[in-house]
Design a protein that fits this description.
The protein is of the alpha/beta class. It contains twelve helices and nine strands. The strands form two sheets. Strands 1, 2, 3, 4, 5 and 6 form a six-stranded parallel β-sheet that branches. A three-stranded parallel β-sheet has the order 7-8-9. α8 links the parallel β7 and β8.
């Protein structure tokens, strides 16, 4: 049995720039982990593409960089208009489910791109952006990232304003990379369910980017979803395997419930891969692993797509 897959996070946009002479999204490449043929082979129905703002563009130049990345994404996906459709609304989601196309949803990774202005958020919305990760690993004008260590400030007043405006507009709040205080502040502030696009369980792998059981329970109580990452460092400190990644799926399901679990590969944002999960075409093998670990067909359907679909529909404009 095949399942449509939603992947909550990839950094493929950087390949459009780094390999612009050799990389074409329309054909299978040796570079990176994602292109159109590999998305099709992997059964991906919707891919969230993140505009990652590199550190050299922080704090000055983030807005310009985000706009340049947005242009790169559109330019490289335009030749795939018969196979890929951009997702802006609930109506688009409904059409996607009944079509043979792959959906593309645009998100920004790092609130620096707003350069302190809620008005910029509204303009990004008008340009088709439908998600925002409040932080990367550093501190910015909205919140503090996990890279600043334990403690630190949580959500700022501007961060609260941004979340409320995102709720009003119809944008996904992404809490990957935010520190623990900011995480709970954001859950308290958002009137809509949030996502954690790419992270794993801290109980199984004590990486700063992973979530504690208390964070997972709070996410579930708020109706949110975590996309489990394939980054080896988030899976195991010694040896990351598909079986160890499946341990994370089982643990999060036990702690937060199957309704709050999804895929968040972080493909093209990771240098190393888990053996057997080399690129997007290998996703059916992970789905088979879920079945072997005791998840039934209804539960796998939720994990692969239905959970993210629910939260996307709760957030996106009509």
């Amino acid at each position: 049995m095949s399942y449509p897959i939603i992947d909550g996070h990839c950094d493929t946009i950087r390949l459009f720039e780094l390999n612009k002479k050799d990389y074409s999204f329309t054909k299978k490449n040796n570079a990176g982990h994602i292109d159109l043929p590999r998305l099709q082979a992997g059964g991906v129905k919707l891919q969230v593409f993140a505009l990652y703002i590199e550190e050299e563009f922080k704090p000055v130049g983030s807005l310009k960089r985000a706009l340049m990345l947005l242009d790169l994404l559109r330019k490289n996906l335009e030749p795939c208009c018969k196979e890929i459709t951009f997702i802006y609304s609930r109506a688009d989601l409904e059409k996607l489910v009944c079509s043979n196309k792959i959906g593309a949803l645009i998100s920004i990774e790092g609130g620096e791109a707003l350069e302190g202005e809620v008005a910029v958020l509204r303009m990004f919305f008008r340009l088709g952006v439908r998600g925002l990760g409040l932080t990367w690993n550093q501190e910015n004008q909205l919140a503090t990232g996990v890279g600043n260590g334990v403690g630190g400030r949580g959500l700022t007043r501007l961060g609260r304003r941004v979340i409320k405006e995102m709720n009003r507009l119809g944008m996904l709040v992404d809490l990957a990379h935010i520190n623990e205080k900011g995480y709970f502040d954001a859950l308290e502030t958002s009137s809509k369910p949030v996502i954690v696009s790419h992270a794993n369980s801290r109980a199984l792998c004590p990486h700063e980017r992973n979530l504690s059981d208390d964070q997972l329970k709070a996410l579930a109580a708020a109706g949110g979803v975590i996309g489990l990452s394939f980054c080896p460092d988030f899976v195991d400190q010694k040896r990351a395997t598909i079986q160890r990644l499946l341990d994370h799926f089982v643990h999060v399901a036990d702690v937060a419930g199957v309704d709050h679990l999804g895929f968040g590969s972080d493909f093209d944002g990771i240098e190393d891969v888990i053996p057997g999960l080399e690129d997007a075409s290998a996703l059916p093998g992970l789905v088979e692993g879920l079945s072997r670990r005791g998840f039934d067909a209804h539960e796998i359907d939720k994990i692969t797509s239905k959970n993210f679909l629910r939260v996307f529909a709760d957030n996106l404009p009509a």
